[in-house]
Design a protein that fits this description.
By secondary structure, the protein is mainly alpha-helical. The protein contains 8 helices and 3 strands, in the order H-H-H-H-E-E-E-H-H-H-H. The longest helix has 28 residues, at 2-29.
């Protein structure tokens, strides 16, 4: 009888240990939570994962017709911020060179153009700049063609040429954007 009770207790203890081991392994394998205040990136892959996580969060809140392709958002951030290394990205959490013509909020002047009639917005987090970039694409009149084509497809390579109004470079800008999308697809599979 004592042996039977001990066997039952041993089985229960073994099950408890296995359960604890399973819980430990599960928590250990989970990805680290994203720190939305990250100011620098370890490497290009870290940058891509961070921006991808941001756009995932932003897109969760949007109706389907306003969602923007992950690839497009990431590629634009790469192009505009030089993989998160630009001054605006590092000091202002601005991954897209988003400008402002008012002095009411936090902003930075471009160093190469001190007499500019604009400044570059400063964001609390880099994800805030992702959110604002998506808001601009969804609302600014300059991007109406982009919004119209986005109803047809979410393909970033197809949509990139419709962002020619995002930069003063126009068509040259969209060629660079397409090149970045292709680079990311080839080397990172995003």
């Amino acid at each position: 009888m004592v042996i039977a009770i001990m066997n039952i207790m041993l089985k229960g203890f073994t099950k408890l240990l296995l359960l604890l081991l399973l819980v430990f392994v599960t928590f250990s394998l989970q990805a680290k939570p994203v720190d939305w205040r990250t100011t620098t990136f370890e490497n290009k892959e870290h940058f891509l994962k961070y921006i991808s996580a941001c756009i995932l969060e932003v897109n969760k809140e949007l109706p389907i017709e306003q969602k923007v392709s992950d690839e497009l958002v990431v590629a634009t951030a790469v192009l505009e911020s030089a993989w998160g290394t630009s001054r605006f990205a590092l000091e202002g959490n601005n991954l897209y060179g988003i400008k402002t013509w008012t002095k009411t909020g936090p902003n930075m002047l471009p160093l190469e153009n001190q007499g500019a009639n604009f400044s570059v917005r400063v964001f609390q987090t880099k994800c805030d700049s992702v959110k604002e970039y998506v808001r601009i694409l969804n609302n600014h009149p300059a991007h109406q063609d982009f919004r119209t084509k986005r109803l047809e497809t979410k393909n970033a390579l197809y949509l990139a040429p419709f962002l020619n109004n995002y930069s003063e470079l126009g068509e040259e800008y969209t060629k660079r954007l397409v090149s970045v999308i292709q680079y990311i697809r080839k080397h990172y599979g995003i």
